[in-house]
Write a structure and sequence with these properties.
With 197 residues, the protein is an alpha/beta fold. The chain contains nine helices and six strands, in the order βββαααβαβααααβα. Strands 3-2-1-4-5-6 form a six-stranded mixed sheet, with helices on both faces. Strand 4, helix 4 and strand 5 form a beta-alpha-beta unit.
């Protein structure tokens, strides 16, 4: 087995989990980042208002995504990059909710990805006053980086998991999760028909 996974990070336009406006991805093979990708997303209709609070965090505005692919149009690109990998995110509950809710908003079938949370892993591996992404990434030897740039955040998350695996002697994601006492979750499979209902 090898330490293979894809780290993912979403930015949102507002307080709705469905309002994905950017995604960043980092593919890891044998414990090394081998590819990165990221792009802007036009949030689903009804979830496409940009709140000042969110813009202040990531700097993405409605004008920036006007020519971007919609959630539905970009979903195949996301799946093509991640393949059948376990997804890893820093606070994975948030990022998996974005995937699920955006698919519900558009009537798309949400891919039933398995996922792990680097926050949960970091709490068991690093003795830190905070487990925010920049703090843990620095402890993992990664940084500084432009926090809330989705691709940079995905790369930081990937580095945390790579470093954590090295520290605990794990050779793959399943072993890392087991050694840290965390579970690998799975996004419930939803059909497009049910999502659209």
């Amino acid at each position: 087995m090898a330490l293979d996974f894809t780290a993912i990070d979403f930015e949102t336009a507002n307080s709705s989990s469905a309002s994905a406006c950017a995604v960043g991805l980092a593919r890891v093979r044998n414990g090394r980042i081998v590819a990165r990708a990221g792009w802007l997303i036009r949030p689903p209709e009804g979830h496409d208002r940009f709140f000042d609070l969110n813009v202040g965090i990531h700097g993405i505005r409605a004008d920036d995504v006007a020519g971007a692919k919609s959630w539905s149009e970009q979903l195949d690109d996301l799946v093509a990059f991640a393949g059948a990998d376990v997804l890893v995110a820093h606070n994975a509950g948030f990022d998996m909710a974005v995937m699920r809710r955006a698919c519900e908003a558009t009537g798309d079938t949400c891919p039933p990805y398995r996922y792990a949370c680097s926050v949960q892993v970091s709490r068991r591996v690093y003795d830190l006053p905070s487990h925010r992404l920049p703090v843990v990434a620095e402890a993992a030897g990664f940084g500084p980086f432009p926090h809330h740039d989705a691709t940079a955040d995905a790369a930081a998350c990937a580095h945390i998991m790579i470093d954590a695996a090295r520290r605990v002697g794990a050779t793959d994601i399943a072993e890392l999760a087991a050694l840290c006492g965390v579970t690998i979750g799975e996004i419930p499979r939803t059909s497009a028909a049910r999502a659209a209902a």
